[in-house]
Inverse folding.
């Protein structure tokens, strides 16, 4: 074999070997890419399942507690942002129930679920002795009732976390709420109380009642034993429990319980770490209808009842709810079940106008509650130096509202998807005192209905 043939054979061998090498590498690379594609496809499928699951959960009207959360250790699961909920307010073209950027445009819209307030009328300053006066005027939709409730169907904010027995309603249109209610009791005591010559009054609310606060006698009623929903009128019961268990000057530090407040709630705009008194908390709950103040009260009193200042929220909040229902029962309430300290719509929470009248009578007999709820504006300087001024959500109390009624001295507004617009009022004139209860009315009717009842009861 000559020299040229040998060189050609060697060259051909090199080409073959190189081809086999690159071919093998190409096949290995293709296999690796195939595995990557399969892994990505599998990952995307899992993500998709997660999204579908989330969507299904959102369609469910009840927010379910996360079974993986260890509620006995709040620091591990409550990631509190000090600004949590501060963009939300009670009653405005921002109203007692809803989100801040929504507007009240149609009384037939569904109501949001938990009270809210006009941001333009809440003055807050975290430094002592320096009150802020905001100059942004209420919207035209607010007109004279600048603290009117906001309409919203989606009611539960993303920051709210449920306790096991506190299933807040996120979307009332997806919940057969009435199926959770028992049959109302109509016992002999109620029968005797309603055995009156009932006057004919033009009341638009679904349910209403008027009591003589001195004698406890029923003066008027309209479907007083049908199930209704308390919304923030439940805060009167929260206040009654608080004054039973606490002195006004007791100091409380705001804590992790803020994360239990639905983000669309009415707020007193409390911040984690602030130190204030029980009196401050009562004013923050009853004047601007602060759901955050209600939860701070609930966690503090719950721990006090348990005699354990380190009790978890899982223990403290249910204990306070137990105290609420125990207090209601002591007042003669038989057709109510309270599930939340702020009255936010929840599965299994209900009441009647008659029962709320009994709670209203007890509140009207408490000087602290009446004094606080009779304030059109309430300035408070906290123990830590924070200086805040809250505006009352009750138009009958405020002279600038266009619905001011001079004989009204309290008590509490409320509105939610299930409750409609509610108002419990105390009227006083010439030694007479009456308590009116308006449940499930509309944005105008609750004021007009309340004045009608108060005038009748006071003989005006």
């Amino acid at each position: 074999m000559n020299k040229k043939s040998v060189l050609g054979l060697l060259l051909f061998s090199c080409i073959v070997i190189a081809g086999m090498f690159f071919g093998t590498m190409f096949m290995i690379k293709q296999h690796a890419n195939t595995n990557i594609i399969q892994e990505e496809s599998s990952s995307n499928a899992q993500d998709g399942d997660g999204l579908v699951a989330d969507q299904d959960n959102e369609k469910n009207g009840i927010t379910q507690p996360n079974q993986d959360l260890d509620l006995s250790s709040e620091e591990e699961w409550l990631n509190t942002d000090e600004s949590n909920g501060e963009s939300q307010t009670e009653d405005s073209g921002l109203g007692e129930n809803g989100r801040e950027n929504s507007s009240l445009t149609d009384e037939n819209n569904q109501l949001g679920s938990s009270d809210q307030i006009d941001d333009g009328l809440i003055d807050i300053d975290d430094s002592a002795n320096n009150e802020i006066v905001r100059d942004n005027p209420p919207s035209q939709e607010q007109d004279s009732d600048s603290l009117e409730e906001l309409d919203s169907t989606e009611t539960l904010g993303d920051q709210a976390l449920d306790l096991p027995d506190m299933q807040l309603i996120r979307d009332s249109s997806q919940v057969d709420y009435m199926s959770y209610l028992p049959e109302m009791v109509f016992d002999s005591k109620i029968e005797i109380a309603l055995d009156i010559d009932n006057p004919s009054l033009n009341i638009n609310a679904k349910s209403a009642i008027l009591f003589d606060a001195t004698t406890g006698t029923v003066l008027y009623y309209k479907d007083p034993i049908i199930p209704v929903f308390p919304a923030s009128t439940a805060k009167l019961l929260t206040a009654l429990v608080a004054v039973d268990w606490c002195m006004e000057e007791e100091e409380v530090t705001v804590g992790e319980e803020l994360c239990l407040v639905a983000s669309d709630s009415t707020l007193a705009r409390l911040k984690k770490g602030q130190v204030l008194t029980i009196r401050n908390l009562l004013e923050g709950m009853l004047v601007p209808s602060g759901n955050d103040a209600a939860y701070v009260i609930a966690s503090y009193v719950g721990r006090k009842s348990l005699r354990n200042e380190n009790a978890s929220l899982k223990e403290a909040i249910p204990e306070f709810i137990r105290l609420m229902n125990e207090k209601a029962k002591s007042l003669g309430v038989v057709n109510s079940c309270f599930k939340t300290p702020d009255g936010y719509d929840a599965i299994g929470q209900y009441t009647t106008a008659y029962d709320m009248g009994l709670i209203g009578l007890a509140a009207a007999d408490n000087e602290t509650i009446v004094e606080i709820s009779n304030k059109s504006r309430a300035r408070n300087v906290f123990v830590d130096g924070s200086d805040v001024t809250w505006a009352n959500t009750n138009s009958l109390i405020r002279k600038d509202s266009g619905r001011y009624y001079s004989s009204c001295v309290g008590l509490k507004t409320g509105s939610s998807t299930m409750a409609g617009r509610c108002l419990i009022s105390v009227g006083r004139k010439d030694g007479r005192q009456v308590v009116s209860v308006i449940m499930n009315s509309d944005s105008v009717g609750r004021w007009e209905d309340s004045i009608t009842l108060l005038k009748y009861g006071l003989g005006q």
